[in-house]
Design the sequence.
């Protein structure tokens, strides 16, 4: 029902924007001097579309001269319109593209400013989503980042800013995006504010936090959640290692790295790392030291049962989420503001969560969590 409500709000926002353009002043402001026409409340209108019958609120003016373009007087059907408004924006189309599409398909001539006002309604949904209450305990939370080009409000220069996403797995094995944050730099102060935000929204414990070398993160999460185990993302560590390899050696290096993270114990993994360094140090001297630098965040991995290891290692969920986000933003060279980027990424997250959200084979992992973490897991 959330998407249907969002479509209704978008249509109502668009009708309100049309009335603003018709009257020449924003809602809540005074009318221009000498103008007698004013806003005159709203009326209810029932429309039939792909989601069935929908009731929307249509704004009115005093003298009845307002003729909306989106839903004309007497119109009772909006076939496809409710899906198109939000669908085009969520697919990554620019305001200019959406304007051209509405005119070509529906014969609606709307200004870019009008479409921008309509899509701004998404920000209300984002604020509500970003402040919603969360579960008390999350067995696993994966923190990841991707880079987005955003025009800086002060310098007006386009900068690469990081979009951080937290993907949690609940005690019932349901994946849930806990929030998204945009920042120019990684630092402990930023991460501490993120951790405190999660606490303020109800999170009291995170059993395992999976990260990819985010600067300042370990100190921040230890300050907010002292008992949390910080685990480096094995997939990202392997990919980082393979970046130093010639193409012809990648398969063999990957196979030897697999012997490290597939080891039964931390001691066995350390022995495999020594063997790897002895074999490849002459050709790729930087790989083994990279693993040793991250070793304190690698070794917690070996204390877990294979059922838990599989969820931590594969990180398929966060990879799938990143693919959905990148697909939405790839058509944009850059975003004019952080709000514009937030709107589109939020819609991409909603599309991601419409798919399957349950973690596969969670039952075995749940039993292991209940044994390993006992009171914390069942709190």
Sequence:
């Amino acid at each position: 029902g959330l998407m249907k409500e969002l479509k209704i709000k978008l249509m109502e926002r668009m009708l309100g924007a049309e009335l603003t353009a018709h009257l020449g002043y924003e809602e809540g402001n005074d009318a221009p001097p000498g103008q007698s026409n004013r806003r005159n409340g709203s009326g209810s209108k029932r429309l039939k579309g792909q989601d069935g019958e929908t009731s929307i609120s249509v704004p009115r003016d005093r003298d009845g001269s307002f003729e909306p373009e989106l839903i004309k007087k007497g119109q009772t059907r909006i076939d496809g319109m409710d899906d198109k408004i939000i669908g085009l924006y969520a697919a990554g189309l620019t305001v200019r593209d959406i304007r051209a599409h509405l005119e070509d398909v529906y014969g609606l001539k709307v200004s870019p400013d009008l479409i921008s006002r309509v899509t701004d309604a998404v920000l209300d949904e984002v604020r509500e989503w970003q402040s919603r209450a969360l579960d008390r305990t999350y067995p696993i939370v994966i923190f990841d980042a991707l880079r987005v080009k955003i025009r800086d409000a002060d310098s007006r220069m386009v900068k690469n800013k990081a979009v951080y996403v937290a993907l949690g797995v609940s005690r019932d094995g349901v994946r849930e995006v806990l929030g998204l944050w945009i920042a120019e730099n990684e630092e402990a102060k930023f991460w501490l504010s993120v951790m405190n935000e999660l606490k303020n929204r109800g999170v009291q414990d995170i059993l395992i936090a999976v990260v990819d070398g985010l600067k300042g993160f370990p100190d921040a999460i230890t300050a907010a959640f002292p008992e949390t185990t910080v685990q480096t993302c094995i997939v990202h560590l392997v990919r980082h290692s393979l970046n130093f390899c010639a193409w012809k050696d990648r398969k063999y290096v990957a196979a030897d790295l697999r012997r490290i993270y597939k080891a039964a114990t931390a001691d066995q993994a350390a022995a495999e790392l020594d063997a790897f360094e002895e074999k490849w140090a002459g050709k790729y001297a930087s790989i083994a030291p990279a693993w040793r630098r991250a070793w304190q965040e690698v070794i917690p991995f070996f204390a877990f049962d294979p059922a838990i290891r599989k969820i931590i290692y594969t990180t398929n969920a966060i990879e799938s989420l990143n693919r959905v986000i990148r697909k939405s933003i790839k058509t944009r060279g850059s975003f004019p503001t952080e709000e514009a980027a937030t709107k589109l990424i939020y819609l991409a997250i909603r599309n991601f969560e419409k798919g399957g959200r349950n973690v596969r084979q969670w039952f075995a992992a749940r039993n292991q969590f209940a044994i390993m973490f006992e009171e914390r897991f069942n709190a």
Notes: Residues 371 and 377 are 9 Å apart (CA to CA). The beta strands are 39-49, 52-61, 137-151, 158-169, 175-183, 205-211, 229-232. The longest strand covers residues 137-151.
